[in-house]
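User: Modeling request: complex.
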Amino acid sequence: MEESAEIVSDGGHEAAAAAAIMDTENGLVEEEKNMDVKVAPALISVHPFEKSVVVAVGSELRLFNLEDDCSVSLKDDSGGPFHSDAIRAITFGGNGGLFVSSGDDKLVKIWATGSWHCVRSVSADKRVSAVAISHHGKYVAFADKFGVIWLITLDEDDANQSKVDNKAVPIFGHYCSIITRLEFSPDDRFIASSDRDFKIRITAFPKQPLKGALEIQSFCLGHKDYVSCLSFACPSGYGHGFLFSGGGDSTVRLWDFFSGLLLATSEVGAKAELLQSSGTKDSYPPVTDLCSSSDGAIIAVAIQNLHGIVLLNCDFSDRTLSVAKVVTLEENYFPTSLALSTFTQRMWTIMGASNHLAPSTTQLPTRIRVISGFCKGRSDDNGHDPIVLEDNEVPGGGKLLSHLQGSPDVTKKDAALAAAAEAVKLKCSSWSSSNTPFPATTSFFQQALTYAEAYFRTLSTEWMRGKPCVDHCRAQDSFTEKSGEFE
Amino acid sequence: MSISNGSGRDEVASGKEGRDAREGFGGSPLNHSRQRHPGNHGLSFALTTASQNRPRSTVAMSSNADTAQAKSRSGRLPRKRFYRARAHSNPLSDSHFPIPISPADFDYSHHYPYFFPPGSGGRSDGDAPPRKVRFADIGCGFGGLLVGLSPLFPDALMLGMELRDKVTEYVKERILALRASNPGNYENISVVRTNSMKYLPNYFEKGQLSKMFFLFPDPHFKEKNHRRRVISLQLLDEYAYALEVGGIIYTITDVEELGDWMRSCLEDHPLFEAVPEEELEVDPVVKLLSSATEEGQKVARNGGETFRAVYRRIKLEEE
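Assistant: Request completed. Predicted assembly structure:
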């Protein structure tokens, strides 16, 4: 008797549930239109031997060849279109022989860095959020917004048969979580993937990966917010090595990735004294990017709201991670992406972001700063302080900057900078509520800054946030629910 | 820490409707949709049954001047009718319930006080390695399997995982009632409200489990919803991670299509191999698959057929 009543009421619930779901989805479409989800950070990547530097801003790839001291325009042989939407991930790999770019246009483009020809253009089913190239240069892995990791195989004689096997193969996945970063371990035996659900998964990368990478080596669990960046370090004498990760909880963590053990945590946001009050809650801003040298001697961290970078010191035998130094750059310079040349030990930083409001014909501005002077004996302290290079000291000089930053004006920036910084402060407060396009007179630097501001704002409101243990907000619930089901 | 303390209980005791509007799944669709779709037929029926039940429950409870908790402590079993819930829940949505940061963060003394008495600091007796959950019932529903398994393996800790808030609350009360009326028994079973498809690694370490159960899971018929199924090639990686080598995964369903799907996923996964039929015949757990759960009993009552797939976690052969 009780049973029959239950069945009926279950049916009723189902109808109600279906109606409720439809409702939230309708509400969502509107909500999404209002969000600045299209803002993407400018990215920078540098060849391991500093032969070339690549900047991605919006759908544009800018390349400067430092060997020949000239800018290079990319050529696409593969017949596919160039990127038509925001680029979300770029990286050098295969010891610098390959470069890959991908993003919202669902195209994964693989470039040979010798000729800078696009050797392969693979279309993904969903928007791509992360890419990685194996160190031996045989595989390119990318992750889509459904949390699935795909693999592209590159053969030696790829140029001849590229069209034949142009498909990517899914090898594993995080269940419906957006992958924020992918990295191969230095020995290519593992692949690390981080997601917005606080997780880092270390997967054994098999000899025949096309059959799937199903053996999970470990999960690195400890972040209390999304994980935004990963970097392996392999100091000699420590077996498999270590993994650094940074995240929305404003920490950088050191992991023994082989066991998943958390070895050390550095509260970098707190150490850099970046307390920010939003409403009633005090919090520290998220770590946006992190890079480290392969021996772990240099660890640099970019934090939202920090006009500079934080250098960390890691003692692998003591398993400690501490802030060594905060390198401050000019006020209002907030790096969105970092890149380190392992050979020259120069750190390249960029600030900028795409903005879908800007007309596509104008070149998107960025700002690049280079930091040098990392010494092997940096931990001995003092005497070897890293120096921020002036624009004329940057490798490639004004030629490089004018190409990568998108405007020749920026090189003569000092005067403009001071004015811009002032103007931007005023502007930023109003910017948060208005969506007016930039006035024509705005200097490029100012634009770059404002784009970066917009990016950071989106970063904190976008899908990466709004996670469990936060609060029970219905609207947020339905928004994040949608993000898990990205088209 | 993983059980949202008392929310469902208050609901039953006081009939506070406003409360569940703030709860994640469970009760909210009712209130929610009542405001938006007053004309819906199936819905209004559901509302009537619910509203008929509610006053009665209020009376029953208040006349006793007792909370449901005290009742279950006194050994009276909770009644399913007060814990109605939707049959389905969206596993893709973001969750708003507490999740342990890592398995070390899982509060054993809260779930298994008999094995982890207060003051033991979450550790069981002295030198022995701390006792860990060995069996996981994914989507445990109303907890029939846990209750059936508990006396069979009194030393093995078992954890049910259920996404629906009210159902979890029911199982929790049921276990407390069973413990109260059978002192010393049913101390090895507990339940958490969680999304196991997303957070399994937050609960279990590598190779921690010896048995995992997937009994009568949501079939998700539509092809576009297949990725919501609890057994998939992708998720089997995580189940293989949580299971020790030699551990067993038990699946059963009354939907033939889903049965085929689960079997083929397990068959295709290199880390699993089928358990031979002879072994299944002597495995006492297998009998419980169809007989212990509420869903299984329902199927049996209606003379339905069930489809079973039982696989063992194996070590990957080196090539």
